[in-house]
Amino acid sequence: MMFSKAELARRTNEARPILERLTAAGCKFMQVEMPDNNGVIRGKLVTLEKGLSASGLGATNLVLCMKGGDKVCFTSPFSCFDNGFPKFVALPDLSTAVALPWKRDVAAVLCDYYMDDGSSCVHDPRQILRSAEATLEKMGYSVRISLEYELYIVIEDDSLMRAGRYDELLSFGRDYDVLTFTRVPSYENLAKEFMTRCNAVGIKVDTWHTEGGHGMFEYTFEPQSALKAADDAVRARLILKQVCSERGLVATYMVAKFFNTGDTYSGCHHNFSLARGKQNVFWDDSTKDLSAIARHSAAGILKTMPDFNIIYRPWVNSFRRMDAHWFNAENASWARDNHLAGVRVVTGAVPDALTRFEHRAPGADVNPYLSVASILLGCIQGLKESEEPPPYATGDVKQDKRWPLLPPTMPEAIEAFRQSSSAVAGFGKEFVEHFAFVKNDEWNDFLSSVASPQEALKKAPVTPWEFQRYFNFA
After folding, report:
1. Which of 166, 263, 307, 428, CA to CA, is 20 to 30 A from 121?
2. Residue 48 and residue 25: Cα distance in Å, rounded?
3. To 10 degrees, the CA torsion angle through 300, 301, 302, 303?
4. pTM of whole model > 0.90?
5. CA distances from 356 to 145, 269, 285 (A)
6. Which CATH code of 3.10.20.30, 3.90.550.10, 3.30.590.10, 1.10.10.10 fits the domain covering 133-470?
7. Is the dihedral of CA 273, 278, 281, 283 positive or negative?
8. Mean predicted lDDT score pLDDT of the chain
9. Backbone angles phi and psi of 108, in degrees to 5
10. Can you tell me whether residue 205 is helix, strand or coil?
11. Kind plus residue range of the DSSP H or E element containing 11
């Protein structure tokens, strides 16, 4: 039992050397980090001892009912007026406890969610991902995931932001830049401070560069295990927002911000491979081609892509990015080194080490726990069924009618997820129903707040409702 006397004693003993280490580092307080259903870190600042408590902290389960703009869905069966909005236990994952050197006396720890009876919360994205990764480990594989985040940075203007005039904020960079060192003003100090802070807490950000837009940037992580990759992603997002705030800047992960300026949309490509030990198993050196393991994995990922589209595009604004000619997949296709496909196969200069799938559907606004889990769950299904994928797509994948289309609107994507046997098998029926319920509530908010909502999504500009909802909170 999670909260039996024996288990509480075990965790207390496990926490003791961590408490000593953090105290020796000068820490007095703990930033208790609670990822919500959207992959945003929420939480509390508590004493160091409280943050490492074996019995955890009480937390509202509304953390897993959040919509855009910090709005809350109050009508989900999981947390509503009928059940009195009960709390659950946020239990610190002691393996994630780290000192935050730039805060001098503050440490941080990520949490998992449990019910009072000691059972896991079925809606906890972090535990969903942990379970999927454990399934692959039982099958003999370890996971390697590297995420690439694109985002926009603007110059903070409090009066404009309070008035909801986000589209008038000036970009951090005067020109449209791609891979340049000459952007004005210079971004070098910001990038170095971000990467330094990440490294100090064990997050390996190995690249930072300008992307195709005004004030647009990209950063990439070193490959990690699945749970570590998602943990690093949510923590790095918080770190970058704080580094920007200290410099009078604002970082936004809202995917569609500009129109008719040539600026691209903010993606989050997921680079994925499997290994046994240190050996990449996606490459077969005897055939000089993808292995059977890679092909079966691809078949499952492609098969589940349409059903999981609401995971890759979780917000109203997310669907504005869905255009293969802007390098964002519209169908469940795969291809060798083709940026228009849903899954881009990359072998690199050293195929037996670098072969991987680049899943190109997710945007920068995803919950990385769920988006990574969805890829793992597709992979698991493919390996179990031993299916072969179709031959590669070639050329303009958008014009290739062989591939199943991804649901092009939020309501269609929600319903595809709700009706999906793959989603129920992988995420669990309760999670699927709750997640679909909250996302449908988000869509209904849009319908009730924007005149001619369907038409508004077909053309520029991005609506003020979208800016208010996603600019700070995606």
Report:
1. 307
2. 12
3. 50
4. yes
5. 9, 12, 14
6. 3.30.590.10
7. positive
8. 94
9. -140, 150
10. strand
11. helix 5-24
